[in-house]
Amino acid sequence: MKNIIETSNLTKIFKNEKAINGVSIHVKENSVYGLLGPNGAGKSTLLKMLTGVLHPTEGKILLHGREWRRKDLQRIGSMIEGPAIYENLTAYENLEVLALLLKIPKQRIHEVLQIVGLAKTGKKVTKKFSLGMKQRLGIGMALLNQPKILILDEPTNGLDPIGIQELRELIRSFPKKGITVILSSHMLSEVQQVADDIGIISHGYLGFEGKNDQSKYDLEEQFIDIVGKTNREVGLRD
């Protein structure tokens, strides 16, 4: 399976502090890539660079083996730091606003509502939605432009077990539709249940990248070892 996205020595510096330090990830096409790390590890910063919100200080982002360009955003959908929803509008109306901005046919709205399981919400305004429904609407907004890559930042944050299960099934369905998913989380069990490949990041360093194979390593042990190691290294530098 070929890589759809790669980063090469990706680095982001804020006021002399390296939020991301020489990170090289490899994301296979039509797969789910889980980016694990504790809060403040640099996950959101990395995802923001992949979506063009932030510019790398150093390093490269490659899409299908060539350097990322601004127009590649047409092929990327994202939900970072929660969905941007108008709570006085319905699910359809939220998608309609975005469709008008992106000049997308209205028929696509119905398709997306079916995909994310919100086709029967009718005139219910989104302020009355559960958190899980809002998350699914946010993912629907990210899917509106028919992206090949879907980037989700902590999509299960705050969800109850039912909401997590629904979102898990939705995420796992995307590779079969030709959509590659990159998701971040600090929840090991959730990533382990949906990801094909896993990257573990701590203090801006990628400490591990590999196939999600529970027969070969214990993810919890790997995670604790990497976080502990980078904590010690950062402590020594300080």
Automatic annotation (TrEMBL):
The keyword Nucleotide-binding applies. Residues 5-228 form the ABC transporter domain. GO terms for molecular function: ATP binding; ATP hydrolysis activity. Gene3D superfamilies: P-loop containing nucleotide triphosphate hydrolases. PROSITE patterns: ABC_TRANSPORTER_1, ABC_TRANSPORTER_2. Belongs to the ABC transporter superfamily. NCBIfam families: galliderm_ABC. This is Lantibiotic protection ABC transporter ATP-binding protein.
